């Protein structure tokens, strides 16, 4: 479900990316769906991050929609969940 909070969070990410000179952003499509995928596969955010070489704080920020993952991190997340990139993320 798209909420005002999701829209505002994505706008803040876009603005911060513009300020640091980035071209494109990778955005988590649905925070709730992401959390459900972790649970279905038996992971907490902490255990998923540790077992896939991602900093725990980074994964938490990505899963809360407060940080855009680097391409390598997005790839690790997709490989760990065994999903396609487009199932979890979008590029804007």
Brief summary:
Helices cover 61% and strands 7% of the residues. The protein is mainly α.
Mean pLDDT: 87
CATH class descriptor? Mainly Alpha
Question: H/E element string?
Answer: HEHHHHHE
How many strands appear in the DSSP assignment?
2
User: What separation lies between the terminal Cα atoms?
Assistant: 19 Å
* Shape, per Cα inertia axes: globular
The percent of residues in helical segments reads 55-70%
Please state how the strands of the largest beta sheet are arranged side by side: 1-2
Gyration radius, to the nearest Å?
13 Å
The CATH superfamily label reads lambda repressor-like DNA-binding domains
Proper CATH architecture: Orthogonal Bundle
Question: Tags for this entry?
Answer:
6 helices, mainly alpha, 92 residues
How would you describe this protein?
By secondary structure, the chain is mainly alpha-helical. The chain contains six helices and two strands. It has helices at 4-19, 31-40, 45-51, 56-63, 71-81, 85-88; strands at residues 26-28, 89-91. Strands 1-2 form a two-stranded antiparallel sheet. Helix 3 packs across helix 4. The longest helix has 16 residues, at 4-19.
């Amino acid at each position: 479900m798209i909420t005002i909070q999701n829209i505002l969070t994505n706008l803040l990410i876009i603005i911060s990316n513009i300020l640091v000179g980035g071209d494109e952003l990778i955005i988590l499509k649905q925070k709730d769906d992401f959390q459900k995928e972790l649970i279905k596969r038996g992971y907490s955010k902490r255990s998923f991050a540790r077992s896939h070489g991602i900093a725990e704080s980074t994964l938490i920020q990505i899963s809360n929609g407060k940080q855009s993952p680097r391409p390598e991190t997005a790839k690790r997340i997709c490989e760990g969940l065994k999903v396609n990139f487009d199932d979890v993320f979008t590029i804007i």
